[in-house]
UniProtKB/TrEMBL annotation:
It is found in: Periplasm. The keyword Signal applies. One of its GO terms (biological process) is peptide transport. GO terms for molecular function: peptide transmembrane transporter activity. The keyword Signal applies. It comes from Azospirillum cavernae. This is ABC transporter substrate-binding protein. Belongs to the bacterial solute-binding protein 5 family. The lineage of its organism: Bacteria, Pseudomonadati, Pseudomonadota, Alphaproteobacteria, Rhodospirillales. Residues 83-449 form the Solute-binding protein family domain. Residues 1-32 form the signal peptide. Keywords: Signal.
Length: 538
């Protein structure tokens, strides 16, 4: 991995590096404009744990992966019901519905110069299953295991990949899963050359890249810096800009000031009160991108108080949905209380819960807590999470629930959550692929609630043991009739809405502020459909 040198990126890199070292940005001192051939972005990306596409399972990491790797197939960001080829130019499905044969596009090269073949695609899928990191379950749900994946996923020649499932699923479900980041194609020769002690090159790939996408990794410093260089030989055409420099800027006020001064081209984490002043600035534009991402509070059922049904219901009446929607989330989200986002098959828009501390007190008394109780709430120390957590702390206090907020960076909070050692947590969930099963299997299924479970969906993280809902979720994914399948998902949503440890609050609208001279950025329906390679500057 090449080390970062500020001179490589010109004055903008020096200016951004100075933010942590000097108060100049706060005193109005002039900084140089960004280079004409570079994209400079201010963003909060402290949730990145590593850069291996077989491990990436966070919003920021998924967006990184979309710039560096090509996937087997992908969705149309303007119409998620349409699936198109990426590395695969075409595919067929066998009459029995279990064998998917992909024809791999000819002429694609990795950043290393190695040609991309069907064997690279097969190796990438097999590698993800054998590593068994966070996103591996997406492939594992088709019956792929470390023991059988070599037989289930094969390259029969340099241009043909054969993918076999253990049973019949709706073809759109299988294809949607293969649009996920875990299906990114890695350079098998390069990765295998970096393997140590049977780790499939994972230690190396967590800090390096081995893709064929429009950009390649230059450097990543956790919670500080991410730099990418353009791939001039990208098969779709060279990116419009030569490099991307992303700095982790935690303060929205600093992001806005950098944007207005022209020291960054994009600001990603502004607050709603900053939108109106920016609308009057002709040098800046605001872009809204509805996302299939939900904001929710998880209630760990290992906590005896939170495990009581009346307490779960009470907590859903201790959130001021409308108040937060009009202030903290103004323009950045819509109230949404079911686990399927708008636009998904079977999605419901039921919103039965309102802020009602009196009702919450009644429910708490029935549960044996007439004087309330004290609980902790873990949160990622970013915008708007901080403001939301404080608002929930205040609204819950009116019902007698005292919340102690525990802030942390993205990696800290996520690690604790994945160990299910929290009480409550406020977090986001984004769809891994454009099929309702992606959310149903994490909000409405938990095949094994033991601490040593292999599958660890959000239900497991919050210790919610639901064998009957798990059976319904498994039935939905194999239902071939679209109307019947939608009806099952609607029943599942009603059950989760009524009884789950999830206080689902909002569906996200990403609001991005761009300099007016920047065009071509694609802000899609998910973070891994945000892409930079078409961006240019006037």
């Amino acid at each position: 991995m090449t080390s970062f040198k500020s001179g490589l990126f010109g004055a903008a890199a020096i200016a951004l590096s100075a933010i942590a070292l000097s108060p100049a940005i706060l005193t109005g001192a002039a900084l140089a404009d960004t280079p004409k051939d570079s994209l400079v972005m201010a963003w909060q990306f402290d949730d990145i744990v590593g850069l291996d596409p077989a491990e990436i399972f966070e919003f920021s990491g998924a967006e990184y992966g979309a710039q560096v790797y090509d996937r087997l197939i992908n969705i149309d960001p303007k119409d998620v019901s349409k699936i198109g080829g990426e590395v695969a130019e075409s595919w067929t499905v066998s009459p029995d519905g279990k064998v998917f044969t992909f024809k791999i596009r000819d002429g694609i090269k990795f950043h290393s110069g190695n040609p991309l073949t069907a064997e690279d695609a097969a190796y990438s899928l097999r590698r993800a299953v054998k590593l068994n990191k966070g996103p591996a379950f997406i492939l594992g749900q088709f019956g792929l295991t470390a023991e059988n994946v070599d037989q289930m996923v094969k390259a029969t020649d340099p241009r043909t990949l054969v993918f076999t499932t253990e049973q019949v699923y709706a073809p759109t479900f299988v294809l949607n899963c293969l649009t996920a980041g875990v299906a990114s194609v890695v350079d098998s020769k390069l990765v295998q050359s970096k393997e140590k002690d049977g780790d499939f090159g994972s230690a190396w790939l967590r800090l390096n890249s081995a893709g064929s996408g429009p950009f390649q990794l230059k450097q990543w410093k956790a919670s500080e810096l991410l730099t990418l260089d353009a791939n001039p030989n990208y098969w779709r055409g060279a990116p419009g800009l030569k490099r991307v420099l992303i700095r982790h800027i935690a303060e929205p006020a600093t992001q806005r000031l950098l944007l207005e001064k022209g020291d960054v081209d994009v600001a990603r984490n502004l607050k709603p009160e900053q939108f109106e002043p920016l609308k009057a600035n002709s040098a800046v534009r605001l872009v809204q991108a509805p996302k299939g991402t939900l904001w929710y509070v998880g209630l760990n059922q290992k906590n005896p108080a939170l495990a009581k049904p009346e307490v779960r219901e009470a907590m859903k009446h201790l959130v001021d949905y409308e108040g937060m929607a009009k202030t903290i989330m103004n323009g950045q989200a819509t109230i949404h209380q079911t686990f399927l986002p708008d636009g998904f098959l079977g999605a419901l828009n039921d919103t039965p819960y309102r802020y009602d501390p009196a009702k919450a007190k009644e429910l708490l008394a029935k549960a044996g807590y007439p004087n309330g109780f004290t609980v902790t709430l873990d949160m990622r120390n970013t915008t708007p999470t901080q403001d939301m957590a404080q608002a929930i702390q205040a609204s819950a206090a009116a019902g007698g629930v005292k919340i102690e907020i525990i802030p942390g960076d993205g990696k800290q909070v996520l690690t604790k959550y994945r160990a299910r050692s929290h009480d409550m947590i406020i977090y986001q969930w984004g769809a891994d692929y454009q099929d309702p099963h992606t959310n149903a299997e994490t909000f409405a299924a938990n095949p094994d609630n033991s601490d040593g479970a292999k599958s660890k969906p959000l239900t497991w993280r919050n210790a919610w043991d639901i064998p009957e809902l798990t059976k319904k979720t498994n039935a939905a994914v194999v239902e071939s009739d679209g109307a019947k399948r939608a009806a099952i998902y609607q029943d599942l949503q009603r059950s989760v809405l009524a009884d789950s440890p999830f206080v689902i609050m909002f569906q996200q609208i990403e609001v991005v502020a761009e300099r007016a001279n920047l065009t071509g950025m694609v802000w899609g329906p998910s973070f891994d459909s945000n892409v930079y390679w078409k961006a240019v500057k006037k």
